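Protein modeling request. Please complete all fields; requests missing the sequence field cannot be processed.
Requester role: graduate student
Desired output: 3D structure, token encoding
Chains: 1
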Amino acid sequence: MAKKMDEATKRRVRAGRMLLSGKGPTEVAKEIGVARQTVHSWKGVLDEGGIDALRAIGGKGRPAQLDARQLETLRRNLLDRPTNHGFGTELWTLKRIRLLIERLFGVSFSEVHVWRIIGELGFSNQKPDRRAIERDDIAVEQFKRKTFPALKKKPKGMAA
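Delivered output (160 residues):
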């Protein structure tokens, strides 16, 4: 039975097939979503050993500190309210997620790496509106139309 390919291997093989079909490294890089230099290095491997050599690449990087089960646990916890995890407001920040990972798994990451992890989990940056909860939109509109124009300076010589 054939060994199942991980996502990175699938991307390398797809890129290799595109290169073999005549597409250039720049075009392949854009379509696959990797750096142009990465495609050039894959092309070197492809030229020397073919598609099988691209499949064999791997295991060179540092092993992941969180496995798939732990990432799923993290995803479920992030769908929870931050206040359920002891934080003061209803807003997840990188710092809070970093602390949550430390609490749950005993692993410490930089905020940059936490950003990558939450991106892989399918979360995106959400910036809340910076408005007071007590804001009265009708009063704001009235101020803009009536009060503020009366307060603005008028050019000299013009009657109020």
